[in-house]
Design goal:
The protein has 437 residues and is α+β, with helices and mostly antiparallel strands. The protein folds into two domains: 8-264, PPM-type phosphatase domain (Phosphatase 2c, domain 1, 4-Layer Sandwich), CATH 3.60.40.10; 271-437, Jelly Rolls, CATH 2.60.120. Helix content is 39%, strand content 25%. The protein has helices at 50-68, 70-77, 85-109, 157-163, 169-172, 211-214, 219-228, 235-245, 266-282, 291-300, 376-385, 387-417, 421-436; strands at 11-18, 28-33, 38-45, 117-118, 120-126, 129-135, 139-144, 147-150, 194-199, 205-209, 252-259, 302-306, 311-313, 321-327, 329-334, 337-343, 347-348, 362-365, 369-375. The strands form four sheets. Strands 2, 3, 4, 5, 6 and 9 form a six-stranded antiparallel sheet that branches. The protein has a five-stranded antiparallel sheet with strand order 1-11-10-7-8. The chain has a four-stranded antiparallel sheet with strand order 12-19-14-17. A hairpin with a 2-residue loop joins β15 and β16 (337-343). α1 (50-68) runs antiparallel to α3 (85-109), α9 (266-282) crosses α10 (291-300) and α11 crosses α12. The longest helix has 31 residues, at 387-417.
Length: 437
């Protein structure tokens, strides 16, 4: 994680919404609370303007719940031990669930509103941490260092078909199922909520948008539109104009958020975070993870700085962490006998994530070295919290183990081919004699 920096006047934002070119009324809603640094976009659905009711309830309930629990948010802001990032994430999910229950209750009491619901994508920024709660196919994008990343995943039938290989992204453009969502707030009494917390860096920019914009928008178009705007206040209108020029078939809502970088810290911090995520993503264990999932792993990782000749692992000690080299060089050795040297991007100790076996060798820095460490306890925690992430990690573990078994088998086969029957017989007798002794 990066060190906290003062938010204060360093946050700029603007929001806008438009009915579009086809719809008779606007069922989108947005909310900005500058005291909480809370930004929400919701896209309602349902007849007789019920969608507008659902989206309004969702954004207002979320804000109200956070306002009622501002003491917890303030405690986290001040670095108090009584409020963790998980507490804030749980609060966001609770806020969405409360809105979901209220919408569902109203829909059950009014036949004209039966089945109404809404998407919801909310971003809360506290110091240098961002927290997202998300349901549906509205989106939140992050622009950082010239790169655009979609932080949310669409809960839509189209996205499910694409993930399963049943539909290409090109075919999805004209699909009749384009507007079908697989999750919505209020359709049922409760809903599964995607949450994520991550580092927010000076210079970061965010776009929150309903699918009235994202259905027309390509990732590579986001940064140029943002960059060409003279002021943050003109960014949402520029996106709305793009959507309307391309058809405007749905309501269009967008919020632009920018973290100002008055001290020029953003580039260095961004490079550091990107380096960590890049190193993690290059590892066989994490190669199947998306950017968002790599962020989750990075969240639980801690940095370890070693001086020359300082050890991080001692032979025979119980293993409890995986290490990745961010900078520097270490040697793996048994006593004074050096086995191998590892440098930037290399990793060691991953088997400690699944068992408590004693370390088979020692690891010592041969120069000033910075490591990224992931503990077994934290690793199992994120596996418990996310089934899709767990499947990817466990599948990768199987591939790593399979590769090691093949390598070991080849080495054993080579050793056997290089030995005579007499050699092997003598070795067996020597081993038997040692055992009897």
């Amino acid at each position: 994680m990066v060190e906290d920096f003062p938010m204060g006047e360093n946050l700029r934002f603007w929001a806008a919404t438009d009915v579009g070119k086809v719809r008779a009324h606007n069922e989108d809603n947005f909310l900005v609370d500058k005291k909480l640094n809370l930004f929400i976009v919701a896209d309602g659905m349902g007849g007789h303007a019920a969608g507008e009711v659902a989206s309004a309830i969702a954004v207002n309930t979320m804000r109200d719940v956070l306002q009622q629990n501002k003491d917890l948010i303030q405690a986290f802001r001040e670095g108090s031990q009584i409020a963790s990032s998980q507490d804030v994430t749980n609060l966001l999910e609770h806020a969405v669930q409360k809105g979901c229950a209220e919408i569902h209750t109203i829909s059950q009491a009014d036949a004209e509103k039966r089945g109404m619901g809404t998407t919801l994508s909310g971003l809360l920024i506290i110091n240098s941490r961002g927290f997202i709660a998300h349901v549906g196919d509205s989106r939140i994008y992050l622009l950082r260092g010239g790169r655009v990343v979609q932080l949310t995943e669409d809960h839509s039938l189209i996205n499910e078909l694409i993930k399963r290989g049943k539909l290409s992204r090109e075919e999805a453009t004209d699909s009749p199922y384009k507007n079908a969502v697989t999750r919505a707030v209020g359709v049922y009494e409760s809903v599964e909520v995607d949450t994520i917390d991550f580092d927010v860096l000076p210079g970061d920019r965010f776009i929150l948008a309903s699918d009235g914009l994202t259905g027309y928008l390509k990732n590579e178009e986001i940064a140029p539109i943002f960059d060409s705007a003279a002021e943050i206040s003109s960014v949402p209108d520029a996106f709305i104009d793009l959507a309307n020029r391309r058809g405007g078939k749905d309501n269009i809502t967008t919020i632009a958020v920018q973290v100002i970088d008055p001290d020029g810290l953003g580039i260095e911090l961004s490079n550091d975070v990107n380096r960590r995520i890049s190193v993690l993503g290059a590892m066989p264990l994490f190669k199947l993870l998306s950017f968002k999932e790599l962020v989750r792993v990075d969240n639980i990782a801690t940095t370890v700085d070693l001086r020359t000749d300082e050890s991080v692992i001692n032979e025979g000690d119980e293993g409890d962490a995986l290490y990745v080299i961010l900078m520097g060089q270490v040697k793996v050795h048994k006593g004074e006998a050096e086995i191998v040297r590892l440098k930037n991007g290399d990793h060691f100790g991953e088997m400690a994530l699944i068992d408590r076996a004693p370390r088979s060798a020692s690891v010592t820095a041969v120069e000033s070295t910075r490591l990224l460490s992931v503990s077994r306890a934290d690793f199992f925690q994120i596996i418990r919290e996310s089934q899709p992430l767990a499947v990817k990690l466990l599948w990768s573990f199987l591939q790593v183990l399979s590769s090691r078994l093949r390598t070991t088998n080849e080495e054993l086969s080579g050793a056997l081919e290089g030995s005579t029957i007499l050699d092997l017989t003598e070795e067996l007798f020597e081993l038997e004699g040692e055992t009897e002794g």
